[in-house]
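Worked example

This section walks through a single chain of length 178. The input is the sequence exactly as stored; nothing has been trimmed or padded.
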Amino acid sequence: MRKEELEAKRLKCTAYHEAGHAVVAFFLADEVADLNTTIAYSDRDRVDHWANCLATANQLSAELGLPVSRKDLIKVREPSMIILMAGAEAEERVFDSYEPLRSICDYQHIVNLSCGMHANMDSVFAHIQYCRTIAQTFVRKAWPDIEAVGTALLEKKRLTNTETRSVIQRARETNNKD
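Given that input, the structure is written out below as tokens.
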């Protein structure tokens, strides 16, 4: 492959990877971050954002003296795990594979979240597989929305959260007419 072709493929991978995160976050958490086709920028900011959300929830529980049960942890952390997995799932759907280096930060965070909820590694990996199955289902069902966001991100290279929401809403309206 020529250099231009490799760069085009990298941008498409990144756009669809980020679109997977954004669309699943939109449906699970009603929240969308700004998107960017620069991997280091978007991954670092998104992971920092979700880590800050979890830290805030855990800190608030501790400050209020609320016991944090395993069920409470799962309720707070599981959507984050699914959102983080959706990037690689979207990328895999486009290219029949995903770039492990692009997803390493996501997967490290997923494992850390799961380890914080389970006492043994068998449970950790079973829970990760369960979340992956949910992420795959979301990506499959929301594929027209992910394609719309991925295409818009490829065209513009950067989308604000408002622009991303608008793209998702337009895609939903178009798909509901069909």
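What to look for: The chain has a mean pLDDT of 79.
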